[in-house]
Write a structure and sequence with these properties.
The complex is a heterodimer of chains A (249) and B (215). In chain A, 37% of the residues lie in helices and 23% in strands. Chain A is α+β, with helices and mostly antiparallel strands. In chain A, helix 1 packs across helix 2 (72-79). The longest helix of chain A is centred in the N-terminal third of the chain and has 45 residues, at 8-52. Classes of the chains: A alpha+beta (249), B mainly alpha (215).
């Protein structure tokens, strides 16, 4: 039987059938896999937070290596002593604070509402870390991360990741040679929360000067780098009141 | 009977040389420029395209007699997008790390004009087996150029291959850098890919003058 594929009615029916088939296929897949995907995302967040405070499987000169997904939940409860949610002036404990979506909280700020800001207190070898989540814009899409601070506001470790930065250029913000540079820099300039600038041509490629609030930028990734600078600055300023208290103690 | 006839073999081999999707058909240039700063990204992209091309060509070929002409581009887009999303979801559930590496490429695959180009030019007019071979062949042809460009750009731009330093350490000035050699920062930015692809086209057409278009 030859079908006349030029008829309008055929086109409409074909389109409708196609939408139903493809739609149900995708819906079926999404619902079937969602629990596994959610779990993976949860593990990833725990791995990222731990990574920032230096709990990771990194070896000398190697790449980024997280603690394994099989142990991440144990490690997370072992090292993260407290999870706080800061809402306006109130600070409450919440063991699921790490699941808070920073994107949504930043949107609340833009609407003039009070956000719920998560903050994690980690402890390793007697040192206390205050880990702040970050969220911002790169060149193409979202970038995010975590920064671990000690009580003097010196960075003890960072983690960055991105959704769609250019491979080989901006995408390298999640590489060790970029992230490792932040360790030891202060986010303070006198008493101002200046953050850390991803600076071009600061003549310090090995990042030996730790008092200039600057790290060396990635070649070919100016806008992603500026996004990282802006993200750090914005995030630490959101937690200003809390961090002030940490410094006074 | 041989699994591949001579004609079938040509479907795979032609796109590697004289009918290369990038240098001759000029398809898929955008992604070739965007992601070839590193060899690893080139290889990942090539594998992803290989998969989607092979499968997509088969699906389109099977549907070739029932696709309404008026909406064929939309149908093709839906097929690619669905395939890519299905793969992405499965990877997210079972190989999360890999899916993170690939996430950037998902959008690039959907809009890769090689895929749409081969659907239009081949799968709509040929049977599933031949379409499959055509898809694989063109994806390999694309891969060859991507890997060559990625190799040159990463080596000259960063002095590394697959992230491993092969020319020494540019900051500590060891290896080749001790002689005063410097990485060429220009190679990392997209215009460099255009020039490298241009040189490949030039070399290819010099070797085979039949490829040169008459004015």
């Amino acid at each position: 039987m030859a079908i006349n594929t030029d008829k309008n009615i055929y086109t409409v029916i074909f389109a409708a059938v196609m939408v139903v088939v493809v739609g149900s296929l995708l819906a079926f897949m999404a619902s079937g896999l969602s629990s596994r995907i959610k779990e993976n995302e949860r593990f990833e967040k725990q791995q990222n937070i731990l990574y920032a405070m230096g709990v990771n499987d990194n070896v000398e000169d190697g790449g980024v290596s997280f603690v394994g997904t099989d142990v991440v939940e144990n490690e997370f409860s072992k090292y993260i002593k407290k999870q706080l949610v800061i809402k306006g002036d109130s600070i409450i404990d919440d063991n699921e604070a790490y699941l808070i979506d920073m994107k949504r909280q930043l949107a609340l700020i833009n609407k003039g509402e009070t956000p719920e800001l998560p903050l994690f207190i980690g402890e390793k070898d007697g040192e206390e870390y205050h880990i702040i989540p970050m969220y911002g814009k790169g060149l193409w899409d979202a970038i995010w991360g975590f920064v671990a601070l000690d009580k003097d506001m010196v960075v003890q470790g960072v983690f960055f990741d991105h959704k769609g930065e250019t491979p080989g250029l901006g995408a390298n913000i999640n590489q060790r040679y970029f992230m490792d540079d932040f360790t030891g820099e202060s986010i303070l300039q006198d008493t101002r929360y200046a953050g850390i600038d991803v600076a071009k041509g600061n003549n310090d490629p090995l990042n030996e000067r730790k008092d200039d609030n600057k790290v060396d930028a990635l070649a070919g990734a100016t806008i992603t780098g500026d996004g990282v600078s802006a993200m750090i600055k914005q995030s630490v300023n959101l937690y200003k009141d809390y961090l002030n208290k940490v410094r006074e103690n | 009977m041989a699994l591949l006839t001579k004609k079938d073999t040509n479907l795979i081999l032609d796109p590697l040389t004289d009918n290369n999707p990038i240098t001759i058909q000029v398809l898929g240039i955008c992604s070739a420029l965007a992601i070839t700063a590193e060899l690893k990204a080139s290889v990942v992209m090539a594998i992803a395209v290989l998969f989607v091309m092979g499968l997509g060509n088969v699906v389109i070929s099977l549907m070739r007699n029932i696709i309404p002409a008026k909406i064929k581009i939309i149908v093709q887009l839906i097929v690619v997008a669905t395939l890519v999303i299905v793969v992405d979801q499965i990877l997210k559930a079972f190989a999360y790390e890999l899916s993170k590496t690939l996430s950037v490429f998902v959008g690039l695959i959907i809009t890769n004009c090689i895929i749409m180009g081969r659907f239009e030019a081949f799968a709509l007019a040929n049977g599933p087996w031949r379409s499959f071979l055509d898809g694989i062949g063109n994806a390999l042809g694309y891969a060859v150029i991507l890997v060559i460009v990625g190799f040159i750009r990463e080596l000259l731009g960063s002095g590394t291959l697959f992230g491993y330093a092969v020319l020494g350490d540019p900051i500590a000035k060891t290896g080749l850098y001790a002689t005063g050699y410097e990485n060429n920062g220009f190679m990392i930015i997209p215009p460099a890919a255009l020039i490298v692809v241009g040189i490949i086209i030039w070399v290819q057409r010099t070797r085979n003058p039949a490829l040169v278009e008459e004015n």
